[in-house]
Amino acid sequence: MSQTRFSKDHEWVRLEGDVATIGITRHAAEQLGDVVFVELPEVGRSLSAHGEAAVVESVKAASDVFAPVSGEVLEVNVALTDDPAGVNADPEGAGWFFKLRIANRGEFDSLMQQAEYDALVKES
Known about the structure:
By secondary structure, this protein is α+β, with helices and mostly antiparallel strands. The chain has a single domain (about 5-105), classed as CATH 2.40.50.100. The protein is about 25% helix and about 35% strand. The protein has five helices and nine strands. The protein has helices spanning about 25-30, 80, 85-90, 105-110, 115-124, and strands at about 5, 10-15, 20-25, 35-40, 45, 50-60, 60-65, 70-75, 100. A six-stranded antiparallel beta sheet has the order 1-2-3-9-8-5. Strands 4-6-7 form a three-stranded antiparallel beta sheet. Strand 1 (about 5) and strand 2 form a beta hairpin. The longest helix has 10 residues, at about 115-124. The radius of gyration is 13 Å and the shape is globular.
């Protein structure tokens, strides 16, 4: 069974066992507008929680994507390299950015649940 949490930087993390799938939220994708380029981390790279992990560029702006949790990159969504608009089409599904083996479960547990994230988005 998977669990999903959210960061204040508008990333989502779906945890299945010790593998975390990470992408940007629907809210973030809507704020960016049409995504035209995605730079993904290298497989095997170690990421630190809150550290820069990827870059997403839209017609409006370029933004860093941060790792909400620490771990080693296991896989990247290469489909986004050829079709960055996949982020806009399904940001919290097929538009995921990377998967990593989570190093610290406590980091995941400290992230926001859906209701908390929804409240954050409403305030902004």
